[in-house]
Amino acid sequence: MAVQRVAAGLLVRDGRVLFGHRAAWKPNWPNHWDAIGGRLEPGETADQALIREIGEEIGVRVLQSVFLADIAHPASANGAAHLLTIFAVLDWSGGEPANICDEHSEIGWFTPEEIDSLEPLAAPEYRTLARRALCLEEVAER
After folding, report:
1. How many domains does the chain have?
2. I want to staple 5 with a disulfide (CB 3.0 to 4.6 A). Which of 27, 40, 84, 138 is the partner?
3. Full residue range of the structural domain in which residue 90 is found
């Protein structure tokens, strides 16, 4: 089976990072806290998927994003093997992000300290990547 390609964003604002709690019905990583995003459609780039997925899931339009990392996850009980391209989302339009679809049971803004104890987390790398994204927010504000 081919490795799935996934793009997701860590939205940052005022020293906090937005995560979504994946719905119980999701076949991959149900009931886990995750970055906002999803699978790439045929012919789509990771950047394009990021913009589309964030629009579909939380109703905002990405204006500024920065690549953070590619993370390879092997197949597990929580889902198929996938390559996750993760971005820091530093600016968006369309107002306050809102949980506008059934992909997540809730969304929330978390400080780095809160992320450290956020369980279960879909990718342990999110703890480090969230801190990197917040550092980019600080630089962008200068």
Report:
1. 1
2. 40
3. 4-141
